## 1
Amino acid sequence: MKEKWDNRLAFILAAIGSAIGLGNFWRFPYIAYRYGGGAFLIPYLVALFTAGIPLLILEFTLGHKTEHGAPLAFGSYRKNWKWLGWFSIAVAFGIVTYYTVIMSWSFIYFFHSFSLSWGSIPELFFNKMVLEITDSPFNLGGINYIILIFLIVTWIAIYYSIYHGVKTVGKVVYVTVILPWLILLVLIIRGITLPGALEGLSYYLTPNFAALKDPTVWINAYAQIFFTLSVGLGIMIAYSSYLPRKADIVNNAFIIGFANCFTSFLAGIAVFSSLGFLAYQTGKPVSDVVASGPGLVFVAYPTIINMLPFANKIFGALFFVMLLTLGIDSAFSLVEAASKAALEQWKKIPRRALNLLISIIAIIVGLIFSSRGGLYWLDIIDHYISTYGLVVVGFLEAIFIGYLINTKSFQDYMNKQSEIMAGKWWLYSIKIVVPVVLLVAIVYNTINELRTPYEGYPKLALNFGFAFILLLLIISILLSRKQRRL
Ligand code: PHE
């Protein structure tokens, strides 16, 4: 018998569980900060409505209709498009290799919470004590064993979470979804009452219309939406393939899209108020009070935790446990999507052995991010994978559904399933808005990057980042060929 979700709530929670993750608490705040705070929010919201939700609906329909993982879902319409499914899974796999390293940092912070060891300058602590960071990406500085150990622990946790398959996923997420909202509430209350918080908040919330002219901000907004909604990763296709035959699609996509982005928005309030506080303390402007990289939130959250009136240590520990639980259901959604795709191709492999294999390969790739120069690589790969991997997959998905198949019957199926209809606006998004906006963003971004290297990294390092995406693409094409011969 095919595996199915117990009920609608289990599906929604699992999908929200996949969506809400470090993308909301870690990635969103630093990307928003990097691209100018108030300059980012508008493109972000536009991206949610013009691409995030339409593509979420698309992926739910695709999974539900075909009852397959990503490669076969595309392949069941057009055989030679299986590679797109594999590519989305390869991209997701690429993400999870560094995503779990950030979970490893969170583990380390969990232990440090008990003594608040980050002290009064959390940025220094993060760079010097936790990462022991080197001065450039080409100076790897050897493996940081503490990070590696917790990376392995993280993978063990992921492996056991999905030991019994999708049914347990539905249960684990009850805990991993509700707890974060409560904790966030406490952080926000303390955050916004800190001196200087208002300045941070106004940096975050005051729209900067001039910045809307900058396509870099736009491509990053779209990339962040895909990342955060787990769209373009094959995950939502796999999850919706487990939905019962009678299930709603459009409504679910809205619930998940809103719940997810609202969480990011709240995390932004906590983080930016703490940045305002840091600006107040140091006398620097909010815009350059900390480095705007992947380490940002490991400075911002500890700052608020320090300032809690009581129970700082316990609360700190609780917060980092929360980050871990949030990360874990996102990470296992990915393993689930990858293993579903692989099992559909090689029916004979035992699922657990496959999950083990995925975990081991991910740890091996993760070695680079666990090195002392790993932060730089994490930043570079995250950038390439989201702007060229995720955004490209989103673009191609829209082309595929909008032009290469019978879009009308696809949409009819979708609407027959749903309580609310996705009408013309959905069609226009898929046929016109998504392809045009993403194409412009991709082309402009490429030209721009050839001129100004991303974040001033050495060109060679950036070429490695790009080569990584190409490698994922080649692997995907090879995997889809293999499948055809079988
Ligand atoms: N949506 C997830 C998040 O925001 C991203 C993700 C999903 C990452 C699956 C890896 C695997 O955290």
## 2
Amino acid sequence: MIAQDRLDARHMARAIELAGRGLFTTDPNPRVGCVIAVGERVIAEGWHQRPGGPHAEAVAIAAAGAAARGATACVTLEPCCHHGRTPPCADALIAAGVRRVCYAIRDPNPRVSGGGASRLVAAGIEIRSSVLAAAARALNPGFLSRMERGRPWVRVKLAASLDGRTGLAVGGSRWITGDSARADVQRLRARSSAVMTGAGTVQSDDPRLDVRLPGASRQPLRVVLDTQLRTLPSARIIAPPGQVLLLTASADAARSAALEKAGARIERIAGAAGGVDLGAAMQRLAALEVNELQVESGPVLSGALLAAGWVDELVLYFAPVLLGTDARPLAQLQGIGSMAERLEFAICDLRRVGRDLRVTLRPAPG
Ligand code: AOF
Ligand code: ZN
């Protein structure tokens, strides 16, 4: 007999694997997986595929049929208790006659938030929470951030030379990193709800910031922080498939009209010293259900985000080249006068991508 704890962990690991299949498609919903098992034997599996589609539990329950009676369901997120686009999973689990429910993390959605668990308990179902919680959290940094902190999870992607330079001062940062690194960035974009840059980068690099992966089923929202509405209607970011949102402090009606005619959406938000108010931008993006926000910008915006503490994750690609001291810096960070004021990070992941190096960092605690 394998101990119950080990069995739960084993089935939860599989449920987390299943949840990962929704990495590129569930947005703005979380990635969720479910395994229904009796002892060691897996009876059915399910995962949430797309918003509006059935939840992971509903898929697994349908696959299990009558065999779900008396079984254990392992779900990566607390089963929901609300009528959203689909009926409550807690009710479906009760109706299916499962005996136990294990889940990894509580659903911080205020419409659920413990309500799913208490409904199961009230129906006499044994529950166990916090099974492989860290791994389940890691799947959904954006959804959890939006629900728990009211702001997106901010991932800043930067590509630099070994000496931390992102391009020549005269302009032209294409391309520092190789094909493999750029394909890797495409995958990071594809899992993001939105990709954001600044007006300066739109002007100097004219990026598209869209997803060009074969079979990509959704385009992240493209966001430009454009304080003065400098972006031209002919900019490439305005054109490709998907939505473009310009957040501005400008009230220039003529420029707005021309950009809107080209297909962009313009929203005015509060201004602040040096640009639009970053807090107001984050709040607005959270309201638009942006979970993971990927920032691909020049040194000004990345510097501002870093200095103000908005960065949750830094993904740094280092190409094995040197660009020298005349080239542009990684981030414009001024006023660090002592070692006590340095920005400190912890390395979460380090790997070679093609001929380049990828380092994933998070702000060091404290
Ligand atoms: C679950 N299992 O597989 C998912 C859950 O609009 P709806 O009806 O799809 O509801 C979306 C909310 O339901 C989402 O914000 C989150 O709280 C929960 N997602 N819950 O029990 C699932 N995807
Ligand atoms: Zn549900």
## 3
Amino acid sequence: MKRSLMMVMTVLMILGTLPLLTASAAGAVKTPADSPVLKDRNETPEQHDARMAWWREAKFGMFIHWSLFSQLGGEWKGKSYGGYAEWIMYNAKIPIAEYAAFAKEFNPVKYNAEQWVMSAKNAGMKYMVITAKHHDGFAMFKSAASPFNIVDATPFGRDPLKELAEACRKHDMKLGFYYSQNFDWHHPGGALNNWDPASKGDYDKYTDELVIPHLREILRNYGDIAVLWFDMGGGNAEQHARIHKAVLECNPRIITNDRLGGPFHGDTSTPEQNIPANGIPGKDWETCMTMNGTWGYRKHDESWKSTGELLRNLCKIASKGGNYLLNVGPNELGEIPGGSLERLAQVGEWMKVNGAAIYGTSAAPFSHTLSWGWVTSKSNLLYLCVNKLPADRRLTLPELTTRISKAYFLADSKKEPLTVNTADNGIPTIVVPESSPVVFGGNPVVIVAELKGGPMATILDFVFPGMPEVAISGSEIHVQVPQSTDLTKLAPTYNTGSPLVTGNPASGSTNDFTKPQAYTITAADGATRAYRVTVVSTPGVVGVANPSFEKFDFLAEYDETLGRNPSGATWAFKQTKQGDEVGINILAGGPIHAPPAPDGSLHSAFIRGAGNGISQSINFDKGAYTVSFNAVKRNGYKTAVPLTVTVDGAPVMTLESSQIGETWGSYTSTVFAVTSGAHTLGFANGEGDGMNMIDNVQVKCCR
Ligand code: FHN
């Protein structure tokens, strides 16, 4: 039976000669000595790694969004508001005094810190991060800096963070605090309240007299706080520096995220509601995600992710080297919703058996994804998290150069060996017997592969000009290139990932790919493997943006992204409005050609925030083109801004706000003709109250 294994990966090619950016980080996150992350604290890589050690081991944490918004549950004056429930004050434009009055009703008498900690612990989570202050400005802790806090302003009168800190200490759970340092809709000077004049004030005063004192309180009064989770960068570099200094004075070992802003990179990157397709090589990262459709409690939101989905996310994130911060939104009484508790308990059952596949693991040392599941690694072990057993029951690892000595189900205490063979052209394969007692198809099933040691090298890094897609099925490799590519002149580079592996043909050689090419590769262990490479061209596509580009991170990331610009292409980077974000990721530079010349161009850009725009000068061949891209209204924002695409300043497409969906949609501009030479492609959100984001920009010819 033909194997159904099909792995798809997008490889990055920079004009055919520049080094490959491999997809997933191999091994534990290593902080390179020149990493900007080290500059935040002037650390050596060793000091940084030591500080990050518990977090890298932990892998799985609980995010808790809890504040006055939980009292409203997404509804105000009988009306339910869309977007995230914790944004209700903003979405409904609730006056400050009226919102603050809810504090008198906030009495979460069912709050039981120990129960919360145990529900996280039993789920296999190793740390918790709770909103000490969200954008509504309400402090969930006793504060001398502002009376707008849970102890002074509510009948509850208790300090839930104190109780949580005690319970965490008792149950060996790390505790982190989320703090919204920029958006504060209550206190004068805080950002983003544009509906109540009482919010007017001085941002410096707000920073120095509220934010910094608050931070000192939460970092000094609750014992050893492990994480400070900033949210929504904004403000200026001096304000960031003052905040950063104050935080480190309180706790020099604290782990911070990347959302303070300014020159601070933070220890962790924080992709939100998405899993970066290629992980974030060289940086620690944590995907935060809701369990239903909102962070804060919403009364009738039952759109729960299934336990299987949560576990698949956990495996997928671990296989790419990240942590998973999974959210719960307790209600006005202080109870975590039943839908969350039920799933947490089920996740915990799985973790009891399979936790070894997650804790302390690193990204799989492969640059290609696997259609049957995900792989994590730890020393000489690979953990295969099987999501979908192929019909032929064979799990192949085409990139593995080290032999497998033994394989067994992680759940099997007897470690009964599964058949391992290399019959398929030397490709390591684990065969799951028909008689397997393990049921596939529900939650991921974990198989352990013990390796004979040695490098777990990547051997399949074929790289072609023009940002092609590479799909591997056993020893068959299919490469998709733009239609305009001259198949007789393709010059692939070939990166073994290990100095011990040799291959044929040599890197950079020119091949005639009008017919399939054969490659023979000698792996580190001396075994040879033959691969057949077939190149297929895609009609109409000249430049293809990386479809897996999923970076919607915050400002600190953008600099890095630009810093990674491998081609020296001159994308313009323009931030027109403080507090919002705009960024460009350059996957390859160079001109966009009309056929038949090979294309080296692809562009992935994003903008977010009203009034923001980006533009790029691109060299075109004379011809007619369209621009297509994905766009979405930013969830949680009341969006009413149009989006315009321009060429040389002239609109080639205007999307009214009503035309842009709340889930990602694809849009294509009208055809525009250009003469040969440089032309400026631009995207801009209109001014107003809202936000659109774009991604995956493709320039296509010949329409
Ligand atoms: O606006 C917030 C949102 O309410 C939530 O707190 C998330 C969690 O990462 N952060 C912000 C949006 O990026």
